[in-house]
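## retry 2 of 3
previous attempt timed out at serialization; input unchanged, resubmitting
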Amino acid sequence: MSNFIVSARKYRPQRFEDVVGQQHVAGTLKNALATDHVAHAFLFTGPRGVGKTTCARILAKILNCENRTKDYEACNECSSCKSFNENASFNIIELDAASNNSVEHIRALIEQVRFQPQQGKYKVFIIDEVHMLSQAAFNAFLKTLEEPPPYAIFILATTEKHKIIPTILSRCQVFDFRRITVGDMVLHLKSICSMEHIEAEEDALHIIGQKADGALRDALSIFDRITSFSGKKIRYEDVIENLNVLDYDYYFQMTDALLAEDAPAILNLFDQILRKGFEPDVFVNGLSEHLRNILVCKDEATLALLEVGESLRERYRKQAAMTPAAFLLTALNISNDCDVNFKMARHKRLHVEMALLKMCYINRAVKAAQAPAVEKKTPDGTVDGGKSSPKPETRNQQPESPAQGNAQPLSRTEMIELASGLRQGVKKAETISLRLDAYEEAVAVEEAEKAALESRLSLENAQSEWKAYAESLESKLVRLALSNAELRLSDKMLTAVVASNTDRSHLQSELMRLLDTLRSRLHDPHLKIQILVDESKAQELQPQAPKRPLTAKEKLDNMKTVNPLVDDLLKKFDLRLDE
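## retry succeeded, writing output
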């Protein structure tokens, strides 16, 4: 079986001075030991992998050390320290609350508190992941935690302080552990590399520190994984390949293309990134981080916020020197909006490409928005500050060729609109007012149109439009009712006289659409329609009675004259007259 021990265990700190990034906790505990003001209960809280359990074990080891050093560290030579190093100490009891969280486990622990330590001065109980204890277990533990024997000390550790009940928190001294910075991780990894005789590039160690996200234990696990892949030489290329991290060079190239307004290069570079297997949202987040790093390089006061190696730091400085701050702020705003709306976008690739193309024209849009308005003199000698619109083009006016003047691909109005869009539509483009002569011309045209739209309401025109509307209908019954109606006009009232209530109901069903059509075509919005029933009109529509009796064929012909639907009825049911 292999004798390999992971770095997180092999290089676990044995002294407070070896603890990485938690000097505030180590210093406070050492001062408490120096003044003999050691509390009976401690709570160590903070993110994972930052040294909570490690500091608890170091404190427990020092409390029972028989020959403490001058700086209040364990001697590692006495019998208590040796038994602790060999995991054979009976005075230090560890309990994993994640798997021992019931009230029975706490009662068993309380029973052990009753017995004094066999060797040494203190009996130390370390409870890890204490937030996993049940409510009953917490209640059973309260009294012992408040008034323990003088030889009992409790050290609780948790990553979720908010899950611990307030009565437990009030009985402990709480120490908040910090996330480990990338710089501290890099220094610690360098010391391990020197002890393991491993050659590592600084940029590679920075990538490991950034990937660990504040947890030193994660950084050491990644370090072991990289050494298994690379051996005794850790290169930057091997780290980004093994951790699936996008190379910094892509972000520098993308920023250069954005500043050069080279849209084809931007799209091709983004396509190359996607072909390497990276998701679009990963690239957007990486680009945002890159733009943020450039922004902090703009000022020496914020340069310390840049957590990269020295070679990359110099490259960031050079790109920051030629990147305007307005571009960075606007690009960060666009990338943030892209990231927020990414999940809702159906076409993910197009969503990111549109954001990149917006960034491409930031500099041009900002310059257009900041450019002062050109002053022009009006014919009366006054100065036009650019608020009035240019004189409208005439038909004979020829468009200016690209060779004349300094023609731009985008007009000033388009660039202002683009800048306004980049600012999330907070400021709309100023509405351009017509000049006096153009206004007068528009008024004249409007008056001419009004004159052409004067009411053409008359009985003759109403009958013509009524007939045209009737012919456009699909329903034969409604069409027949409109055709048989007699129209009369009095002022704005158009009266339709029909022969029966059936015809009236047909007209009522079509009245609103008919009225809107006649008002539009006769140019009279005040037109009204009323329907009257005159039963005497039905006799006029009936054919005159013949002097002799009608034949069956003549009766059928008369029925067809009165109602054309009779013919459709005969065809539908295949009816014929008996000869």
